[in-house]
Amino acid sequence: MKVIHLDELNDTDRDVDHGNWRSRRFVLASDKVGFSFHDTLLRAGTETEMWYANHVEAVYVYEGTGTLVNRDTGEEFALRPGTMYLLNDHDKHTVRADTDIRTACVFNPPVTGREVHDEDGVYPLLQEA
Q1: Could you report how far apart the first and last alpha carbons of the chain are, in Å?
Q2: CA–CA separation, 41 vs 39, rounded Å?
Q3: Measured between alpha carbons, how far is 111 from 109 in angstroms, rounded to an integer?
Q4: Is 120 in contact with 66 (CB distance < 8 Å)?
Q5: Are strands 66-70 and 15-17 parallel, antiparallel or unpaired?
Q6: Is the pLDDT score of 50 beyond 70?
Q7: DSSP per residue over the chain, as a string?
Q8: Which HAMAP family does the record match to this protein (predicted)?
Q9: Alpha-carbon dihedral 22, 4, 55, 21, rounded to 10 degrees
Q10: What is the pTM of this model?
């Protein structure tokens, strides 16, 4: 059993801050459970383009408001507490944060924590040793 409080992740290698967003990773590939689990903050007034070409991600919004844009179709979806979105088709997407948005995210395959978004917003598929 593993029990962690969010504050315990602060200023560790599981606390990743990239300006527009901050992600604290409770579960990573090294935990060997088949998924990774993150608490992610998207900062107010930012717009972040992402495309998980190598991962499926489920995102649950529990605080804040904004807009999710499907870049392939142009569809826009309101984000507010209680909204879940699933990027099950490796969807190119943009998140516009009107306020700080807090989310709980699950990735499959799990991320290692070493990934960095490339110029297209893609995380490379890294494997744990």
Answers
A1: 22
A2: 7
A3: 7
A4: no
A5: unpaired
A6: yes
A7: -----GGGGTTSTTEEE-SSEEEEEEE-GGG-SS-EEEEEEE-TT-EEEEE-TT-EEEEEEEE--EEEEETTT--EEEE-TT-EEEETT--EEEEEESS-EEEEEEEESPP-S-----TTSPPP-----
A8: Ectoine_synth
A9: -10
A10: 0.90
Dig out the tokens for 79 from the structure.
Answer: 């984000």
* C-alpha dihedral (77, 80, 83, 88), degrees to nearest 10: 50
Name the token pair of 99.
């306020």
Reading the block at residue 20, the tokens are 């527009």
CATH architecture of the domain 20-108 equals Sandwich (2.60)
What number is the average pLDDT over the span 105-129? 72
